[in-house]
Design goal:
By secondary structure, the protein is an alpha/beta fold. It has helices at about 1-15, 20-35, 60-70, 80-90, 105-110, 130-155, 165-180, 205-230, 240-270, 275-300, 300-320, 330-335; strands at about 40-45, 45-55, 75-80, 95-100, 120, 200. The strands form two sheets. Strands 3-2-4-5 form a four-stranded mixed beta sheet, with helices on both faces. It has a two-stranded antiparallel ribbon with strand order 1-6. Strand 2, helix 3 (about 60-70) and strand 3 form a beta-alpha-beta unit. Helix 1 packs across helix 9 (about 240-270), helix 3 (about 60-70) packs antiparallel against helix 6 and helix 8 (about 205-230) packs parallel to helix 10 (about 275-300). The radius of gyration is 32 Å and the shape is elongated.
Length: about 350
């Protein structure tokens, strides 16, 4: 046991001295330092939606103004004509458009008139259902109160002179109920004030993808070292399970330093729960160890391995999504990418 541990520590030292491993370690550390030095910039996150209200009904005018004044992920803004709305949507200035046509407010009360709000979209429109929810949220209040008032007038529930005061009280009760906790309660889970539109962002650096690639590459390099040592007859006396253990030690000694440095680097650049990051990296490292072990059992000559290794690492870079995700363009590429551990990290 003592001899095995001594060999393991010697292997770790050899691994740390290999130029390729040193370069990968330095790249990860350098990226973490660079990321820390990049100032966070504020980025406005909103989806522009053009709003045109052709209806002269004061209630519908109020709906449009309320919509435009909302503070949400949607940036509702007014346009003057349908031509301007079409132009903004086609030019990409607006993600979609809302048109309240003339007569819509009256048609809400007159069921014989069939006039609807028109929602303009394109194939690139996103979160359209959420946008319609915001519009309906505002419409619901106006239409509900208008219907209640109409029913009260038609059924002569109150004297005409009392209706303005009653409707004023009704609107207050309606708003109190809608904003109360009787339907649902809103609690802040962020621990502070949340701005719906603006958030801080840093430049994206694929550190996690690089870390996954480097852990895999370190294991593959460890096998190359083992095959070279074996052919130099350093393990001539080892047989059966002893040789398998030696292969394990070579792979683990190469992967371990890269795995340990990846944990703080990913924590610095991407954040998250420490134990979640630790578990994810540990599981991935174990997969790489098993993968490279099986690979070394298939290819047992260093000369053949040295020719295959650059091809495997190149495919891992291209298919692992380090530079860009090539698998999104072809299903066959995605299936091929699944043969390399970096794809899953």
């Amino acid at each position: 046991m003592k001899l095995t541990l001594n060999r393991f520590f010697i292997m770790i030292k050899r691994s740390m001295k290999q130029p390729v491993n040193l370069i990968m370690l330095l790249v990860l550390v350098t990226l973490a330092i660079i990321y820390q030095g990049i100032p966070a910039s504020q980025k406005s996150m909103y989806i522009p939606v053009a709003v045109l209200c052709e209806d002269t009904d004061p209630e519908m005018q109020d709906v449009a103004e309320t919509l435009i004044s909302r503070n949400s992920i949607f940036h509702f803004y007014a346009v003057e004509s349908r031509d301007e709305m079409y132009r903004d949507i086609s030019d990409g200035k607006a993600n979609s458009g809302i048109l309240i046509p003339e007569g819509f407010g009256a048609s809400v009360m007159d069921h014989e008139r069939d006039i609807q709000i028109i929602y303009y979209t394109t194939p690139g429109t996103f979160l359209w259902s959420l946008c319609k929810d915001e519009l309906f949220n505002i419409l619901f209040r106006h239409i509900s109160i208008r219907n209640i008032e109409a029913q009260m007038e038609q059924n002569n529930l109150y004297p005409v002179e009392q209706l303005p005061e009653i409707m004023s009280q009704l609107k207050e009760y309606f708003d109190d109920f809608m904003n109360s906790s009787k339907i649902f309660r809103v609690e802040d889970a962020s621990g502070g004030e949340y701005n719906e539109i603006t958030r801080e962002e840093k430049a994206e650096i694929p550190v996690a993808k690089l870390a996954g690639l480097f852990i895999f590459a370190a294991g593959m390099v460890g096998i190359a070292t083992y095959l070279k040592d074996k052919e130099e007859k350093l393990y001539l006396r080892l047989v059966g399970s002893q040789r398998i253990i030696m292969q394990f030690l070579h792979i683990i000694s190469a992967i371990l330093p890269m795995t340990l440095i990846s944990i703080p680097v990913i924590m610095i650049t991407e954040g998250g729960n420490f134990f979640a990051v630790l578990g994810k990296i540990a599981l991935y490292a174990l997969c790489c160890i098993l993968y490279t072990l099986v690979f070394s059992l298939i290819i047992r000559k260093s000369t053949v391995y040295q020719k295959v290794l650059p091809v495997v690492l190149t495919l891992a870079v291209l298919l692992g999504g380090v530079i860009f995700d090539i698998t999104q363009f072809d299903r066959g590429m995605k299936i091929l990418a699944m043969l390399f551990p970096p794809y899953f990290f």
